[in-house]
Design a protein that fits this description.
By secondary structure, the protein is α/β, with parallel strands linked by helices. Helices cover 40% and strands 15% of the residues. Strand 4, helix 3 and strand 5 form a beta-alpha-beta unit.
Length: 294
């Protein structure tokens, strides 16, 4: 059995719950951490008091914050939109720095293929131009993160400029800095044929957070078209090898379930996030991962 704190990304219909109900539910189910998506702490939608309540509720439930998820798209043909997303990120980082919790901050690059207004790489925007946009964004974001003692955890995502191990390396090599690290989600790399266990060993201490999410299929479309993010264990992620590699590098962070089996969620779980997190906990334990309290 492999032991890391197990968290759940509080998206799905949990976003309609009160934060105290989310964390108490997850704690009862055996989770030790929660990943908070942007909707819960966005400075343009939530005030500082809301964020302090979020932290207090999390701690009172005995949970850790495994990550703060910002994930704004920095690749856009509209310069005003692009710059506003950079400003938005900077606003969020300043507010997170005002909190006591120094959890990794999850960011990605874009362009997000599920956003119809986002340009398609190689068709509506050359990769080189997209890299210029991403570098301009990170040139502003990284210095603030460094000053505030925050750790950025870049997540490669399907269809994005940074979408697998190899494109991630371009970003890491451009910014060889301690504050720029990795959120390792095996599902996206699997779609591009990455060797999960090898990638983990190569990245080593750069991995500061891990998502538990499976995948099956090939890139080229959206989920449900050329690939799926099924329930844990139903896809192509080599879970045993992955866990052994995390042990080999001495990984000591959280492992957070990101539930995106949306058809199952809608048709079988009837959009019930409580059932989704409970099913996920059962599956994680079946994969051989236990939390520190179990």
């Amino acid at each position: 059995m492999m032991t890391w704190p197990i968290g759940f990304l509080a998206g799905l219909d949990y976003v309609a719950y009160k934060p105290v109900d989310v964390v108490n539910t997850l704690a009862r189910q055996g989770y030790e951490a929660v990943s908070w998506p942007f909707a819960w702490f966005d400075p343009r939608r939530k005030n500082r008091s809301n964020r302090k309540v979020l932290v207090t509720n999390t701690r009172d439930a005995g949970l850790k914050v495994s990550e703060w998820v910002i994930q704004l798209d920095y690749v856009s043909l509209d310069a005003e939109i692009r710059q506003d997303r950079i400003r938005h990120t900077l606003e969020a980082l300043r507010e997170l720095a005002a909190l006591e919790i120094r959890a990794p901050v999850n960011v990605f690059t874009g362009p997000a293929p599920w956003d119809k207004s986002a340009p398609r790489l190689g068709k509506e925007i050359p990769e080189g131009k997209a890299w210029e946009m991403v570098y301009r964004a990170f040139d502003e974001i990284i210095p603030l993160a460094e000053r505030e003692g925050l750790t950025l955890a870049v997540e490669p995502v399907f269809g994005h400029l940074v979408h697998d191990y190899y494109t991630l390396q371009e970003l890491l090599q451009h910014y060889p800095l301690d504050c720029l690290c990795v959120n390792f989600d095996p599902s996206h790399g699997i779609l591009y044929g990455n060797d999960t266990a090898w990638a983990i060993r190569q990245l080593g201490p750069k991995i500061v957070h891990v998502h538990l999410k499976d995948a099956v299929g090939k890139p080229g479309g959206l989920p449900g078209e050329t690939f799926e993010f099924p329930l844990l264990g139903e896809g192509q992620v080599p879970w045993k090898d992955m866990m052994q590699s995390l042990e080999a590098i001495g990984y000591a962070g959280c492992t957070t379930v990101e539930f995106e089996a949306f058809v199952y969620y809608q048709q079988i779980l009837h959009n019930n996030p409580v059932t989704a997190s409970q099913v996920s906990m059962d599956l994680v334990r079946s994969l051989g991962v236990t939390g520190n309290n179990h």
